[in-house]
Amino acid sequence: MSTTSHIKCPNCGVFNTNKTHCESCGFLISHQEKETARAKTVQEEELVSAVEKIEKVNFIKKLKRHPFFLVRFFGWILNSVWIVLNIIGAFIAWFVAMVAAG
Ligand SMILES: [Zn+2]
């Protein structure tokens, strides 16, 4: 015979034999099942936060790969503006350095 587990439902008090959910009220009573469900939830939360981080970093890249051309176009504009800002910043840094060197 296989091992039987008698678990008292914490919700309604009914004893259940070899059940993961209470026969009477459907409450999850299996400790193993609870652990599995909890681990799965934690894993999913971690995955979502990791994906969110990546998406923030790759926001412009994502826009550029968007199926809708206007959004892709907007992504290219953002990308160009970002490059131009970097060039202007570099130019100002160079200019200030030149003026300071006088
Ligand atoms: Zn119950």
Automatic annotation (TrEMBL):
<keyword id="KW-1133">Transmembrane helix</keyword>
<feature type="transmembrane region" description="Helical">
    <location>
        <begin position="69"/>
        <end position="97"/>
    </location>
</feature>
<keyword id="KW-0812">Transmembrane</keyword>
<protein>
    <recommendedName>
        <fullName>Zinc-ribbon domain-containing protein</fullName>
    </recommendedName>
</protein>
<keyword id="KW-0472">Membrane</keyword>
